[in-house]
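Researcher: I'd like a candidate sequence for this fold, 122 residues long. If you have to choose between options at a position, lean toward the conservative one.
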């Protein structure tokens, strides 16, 4: 199983029939993810849940891998999230993440929590 990634990307990943899960604390983002069209999009299970609290959404079956795209910098419970990822991954599973480089401000269209007009103090 693979948790889903940002912007419906997981619907196009060739995962050989494995189950895929998208978990997000924001119901509005889960609703948006369900609107993405793709040949395998119907095979993704979307859940509203706190990733740091897997007992609220996880059935105990270990994942082969997990992705977290452009979100770690916005998750309040970082320790709980990383602990949860380690808990739900198979022993040989992998965790792939991406996040904004703090040297560059974000863009209000893609990363509104890192507004470009604020910059960084030196």
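Model: Candidate sequence:
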């Amino acid at each position: 199983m693979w948790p889903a990634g940002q912007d419906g990307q997981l619907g196009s990943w060739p995962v050989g029939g494995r189950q895929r899960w998208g978990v997000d604390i924001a119901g509005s983002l889960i609703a948006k993810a369900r609107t993405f069209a793709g040949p395998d999009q119907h095979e993704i299970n979307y859940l509203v849940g706190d990733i740091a609290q897997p007992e609220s959404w996880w059935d105990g079956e270990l994942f082969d891998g997990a992705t977290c795209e452009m979100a770690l910098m916005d998750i309040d419970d970082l320790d709980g999230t990383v602990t949860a990822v380690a808990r739900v991954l198979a022993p040989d599973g992998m965790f792939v993440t991406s996040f904004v480089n703090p040297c560059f401000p974000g863009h209000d269209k893609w990363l509104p929590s890192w507004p470009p007009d604020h910059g960084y103090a030196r």
